[in-house]
Amino acid sequence: DTLTIRGLCGSDVSLTHTQGRDPGPRGPHLIVKRGNNMRSAFWVLPLVGLAIAVPNEAEAQFFLGGHAAYTTYQDGGWGGGARAGLDIPVLPLDIMGAVELFSPSCPEGRDGCSLWGASLDANLRLPIPLVRPYITGGLSYRDGDRGGELGSASESGLNLGLGVDVNLGIRIFADWRYEFLGEFEEGLLRAGLNFNL
After folding, report:
1. Angle, alpha carbons 87-85-174 (nearest 5°)
2. For residues 138 and 158, is the Cβ–Cβ distance under 8 A?
3. Rounded distance between C-alpha atoms, residue 163 and residue 173, angstroms
4. In 37-113, at which residue ranges do the beta strands (DSSP E only) sit?
5. Are 73 and 186 in contact (CB under 8 A)?
6. From CA 90, how far away is CA 154, in angstroms rounded?
7. Pairing mode, if any, of strands 77-88 and 114-125?
8. Are 44 and 9 in contact (CB under 8 A)?
9. Which of 58, 65, 68, 166 is the most buried (most CB within 10 A)?
10. Tens digits of per-residue pLDDT, 140-162?
């Protein structure tokens, strides 16, 4: 008697037993017959392995990060910030919020200048692996002391700029943008790291 099982890629696996006869020292044994589609396994198996090994790039990814920044507000000044966001590869888009604190230099004759703020931004990336240029834009809020008798003020408005994101497991980014903020209108250069969660 022979029991035949149809396998993947056209292969047949048979279990053979001859009734009424001595099956010999091997007993019932297996016979594997290769079908015409056996060669397709050499294409299918590597693809299956690749699908298992490579993470699903279509999944949204939360991230946290920090950056150094330079503002052109007043006579310029350095600062830094922190950010949190969501990477949506299928669009491909980053949505993030950031807070920043600066120590701007006051113009001559004034002192006590300060600046801090927050922003809600979206980065639209080109779908390029590893090095990804992007267009950034969003809403910004700034609050600070303009120094001397001018005192403190706050402004909100739009921002727009360009940047690049390099994904080496840790994401390195740099961007330049202009913030249309009236009293606190400024150019802003930022560079830092994002860490996927």
Report:
1. 80
2. yes
3. 7
4. 61-71, 77-88, 93-104
5. yes
6. 37
7. unpaired
8. yes
9. 65
10. 999 988 777 777 889 999 999 99
Evaluate whether 56 touches 41 at the Cβ level (below 8 Å). no
pTM value > 0.85: no
H-only helix segments in the chain:
41-53
What are the beta bridge partners of residue 65? Answer: 83, 194
User: Which two structure tokens, joined as six digits, stand for 178?
Assistant: 């202009």
Banded model confidence at residue 138, pLDDT cuts 50, 70, 90: very high
- CB 34: neighbour CB atoms within 10 A? 13
Cα–Cα distance measured from residue 121 to residue 98, given in angstroms and rounded to the nearest whole number: 8
Sign of CA pseudo-dihedral 85, 186, 180, 147? positive
Nearest one of 144, 174, 151, 163 to 77, comparing CA atoms: 144
- For residue 191, count CB atoms less than 10 angstroms from its CB and return exposed for 0-12, middle for 13-18, buried for 19 or more: middle
Higher pLDDT, 187 or 11: 187
pLDDT tens digits, 80-134: 999 999 998 888 899 999 999 998 888 777 777 889 999 999 999 988 888 999 9
